[in-house]
Give the backbone structure.
Amino acid sequence: QVQLVESGGGLVQPGGSLRLSCAASGNIRNIYVMGWYRQAPEKQRNLVAVFTTGSTTNYEDSVKGRFTISRDNAKNTVYLQMNSLKPEDTAVYYCYVQQGVLLGHKDYWGQGTQVTVSS
């Protein structure tokens, strides 16, 4: 099992910045993907930014140039630095881990942290 604990959400004005953190614990071997998804009200959950195997990063098009994903391997923590925030970035942000297991993979989600961008 993998446990994910997120922090760093909140209310920010348009143009502002926030940094989200996600600390992983438990059986954290064979991690294929680690990063962030978000879900706005009445919309599906979508990828924001993730690390994949080989340290490749993938970003959703609308956040490229504004958001940066990073990680501290010693702390098993991934971060999402969000700059130039827009009202349309308002959503619950979820930390996500995909772990390789025998004959497949398992998905883990954090509890979610609310990000609200509003004046």
Summary: The chain has a mean pLDDT of 95.
